[in-house]
Specification:
Elements: E1 4-12, E2 15-26, E3 29-38, E4 44-47, H1 55-71, E5 83-84, E6 101-102, H2 105-112, E7 117-122, E8 126-133, E9 136-141, E10 146-147, E11 149-150, H3 151-159, E12 164-171, E13 174-183, E14 186-187, H4 193-204, E15 219-220, H5 223-235, E16 240-245, E17 261-265, E18 268-277, E19 283-289, E20 295-302, E21 315-320, E22 322-323, E23 329-330, E24 339-341
Parallel strand pairs: 6-17
Antiparallel strand pairs: 1-2, 2-3, 3-4, 5-11, 7-15, 7-16, 8-9, 8-12, 9-10, 12-13, 13-14, 16-17, 18-19, 18-21, 19-20, 21-24, 22-23
């Protein structure tokens, strides 16, 4: 089973809130955790499962949690973008995205030097396909189920000519298109990526009136350009990059290992103090010290099964994707278990 997560936003008057729900595998089953707070502030965390439960039960809890928040006005769009209703929501289309495996920094280094692998920015959004047949436009999630689309993306797709299936990432009310599976009845999936990219770029260029809700991701091919782009994205604090074999067809699903499309996420390592051992769980609450010596909570981290749960006051190192103002961390789900106890004693580094 794979982890599931969603980030929802709420903006009304002076309220500007974020709510994140995560379904993830733990020793003995699955758990549903959440975090919430004002955007940009330290996130408060909690759980809907006191102990691991079956995937089926966790999925019910997770789906109910998301429905409850959306019913209260939270939306997937950071600006509170309205989503267009569809009567076909959750119907299986039979379509599946090509899913990517993660690679290490050493593996990414090799691909930087290989001209056969092109590189693009990886966006922190919602992966989906957009299918248009005549005048009907539908969003399709990574599981192949029909989902609602933000209205700006829906209207832009309706304005584009012909029929198509586009693969990309929805970020708020913008859609970053990076592949095209079908164009006017022609199946492009057997073609090399280099040819499919030309089609999606041509299609996106037809958007009228400067409504830039679709944008093909910048693609680099040479070693120098790839290195420059990777360094620039790291400096900007972006999520990561994607490497694509320019000669490969579109293959739905996720390979057991490797593949022709690979993702490399930027992660950092920080030093933290264990503030609390969470009762009944293999997880601890972490904090850092401000300049005045006051502890600032940064969230929870799961302890790997092969490691001893560290005690309160222990200094540990953990990997994370993002660090928000006032200390809140966002961890990469597939690597959130990377926590090590530091051998030295003394205060954690200031952050």
């Amino acid at each position: 089973m794979t982890n599931e997560s969603t980030t929802l936003y709420f903006r009304e008057g002076t309220s500007d809130k974020v709510y994140r729900a995560v379904l993830e595998e733990k020793t003995g089953g699955f758990v549903v955790n959440f975090a919430f707070g004002r955007r940009g502030s330290t996130m408060q965390t909690g759980t809907k499962t006191a102990s691991p439960v079956s995937f089926e039960k966790a999925k019910i809890i997770y789906d109910k949690l998301v429905r409850e928040k959306t019913a209260k006005g939270y939306t997937p769009g950071p600006d509170g973008t309205p989503y267009a209703h569809t009567d076909n929501e959750q119907r299986d289309t039979g379509l599946r995205c090509q899913l990517l495996n993660s690679i290490t920094e050493a593996e990414a280094e090799k691909l930087l030097d290989d001209p056969g692998w092109w590189m693009q920015e990886k966006f922190d959004g919602k992966r989906m396909l957009i299918r248009k047949t005549k005048e009907v436009v539908e969003g399709v999630n990574r599981k192949g189920l029909i989902v609602a689309l933000p209205e700006p993306i829906l209207k832009a797709a309706q304005a584009l000519p012909g029929s198509f299936i586009i693969d990309g990432e929805a970020v708020g009310d913008r859609f970053f298109a990076f592949d095209c599976l079908v164009s006017n009845g022609r199946d492009l999936r057997p073609l090399p990526y280099s040819k499919r990219m030309v089609v999606v770029m041509s299609l996106v260029s037809m958007i009228a009136n400067g409504a830039i809700v679709y944008a093909t991701t910048a693609t680099t091919t040479s070693t120098q350009n790839k290195r420059e782009m990777l360094n620039a994205l790291k400096t900007l604090g972006r999520e990561g990059v994607v490497f694509k074999d320019c000669d490969a067809p579109y293959t739905a699903g996720r390979p057991a290992s490797g593949g022709t499309q690979l993702k490399f996420k930027f992660v950092a390592t920080g030093s933290f103090i264990v503030a609390k051992v969470n009762a009944g769980k293999r997880s601890v609450a972490l904090e850092v010290m401000d300049q005045a010596g006051k502890g600032i909570g940064v969230g929870n981290v799961t302890i790997p099964a092969n490691q001893k749960v560290p005690g309160v006051g222990t200094i540990v190192e953990a990997r994370y994707l993002y660090c928000y103002p006032n200390g809140s961390l966002f961890q990469q789900p597939s690597e959130s278990h990377d926590l090590r106890t530091r051998p030295e004693s003394g205060p954690a580094c200031y952050h």
